[in-house]
Amino acid sequence: MGLFSFIKNIGMDLFKGGDEAEEVQEMLAKEFPNQITDLNVAFDDGTVTMAGSCDSCATREKAVLLAGNVKGVETVNDENFTAPPAEEETEFYVIKKGDSLSKIAKQYYGDAMKYPLIFEANREVIKDADLIYPGQTVRIPKIA
Fold first, then answer.
1. What is the pLDDT of residues 71-127, one digit of tens each?
2. Number of domains comprising the chain
3. For 114, which DSSP code?
4. Structural domain containing residue 57
5. What's the pTM value of the predicted model, to 2 decimals?
6. 79, 42 in Cβ contact below 8 A?
7. Contact 59, 83 (CB under 8 A)
8. How does 59-85 read in b/e, with b if 16+ C-beta sit within 10 Å?
9. CB 99 within 8 A of CB 132
10. What confidence tens digit (pLDDT) does each residue in 56-67 have?
11. 122 shares its domain with 74
């Protein structure tokens, strides 16, 4: 994947004035128990650098999105954050003003009622299907 860009001034308010790297690392360890080994996170001037080994490509993508969708994070470097190869390339979408998961599902799948597919693919990033925000980046799963 490499270097992912995010909108720095929006997202989840995670940083409480402590060690940003430690706060991101604790969040990822909590959200992905037993799915990431040897996790190491660094934070410098808006850039989160992640290292470790993920159990799947989906875990890797979700961890990058979770770290990037934090207020104060502008980029995520995952060059040393490994995972088994993906079976197919994942598509990502940046939410715009006026979007809803059903609107995005209609755009990608032709059926607004398929929004649960997007919600489930982003459960770690989206806690409530009705609470998404402009600038948030999500995964768009492929369907057969």
1. 999 999 999 999 998 887 889 999 999 999 999 999 999 999 999 999 999 998 898
2. 2
3. G
4. 3-82
5. 0.86
6. no
7. yes
8. bbbbbbbbbbbbebbebbbbeebebee
9. yes
10. 999 999 999 999
11. no
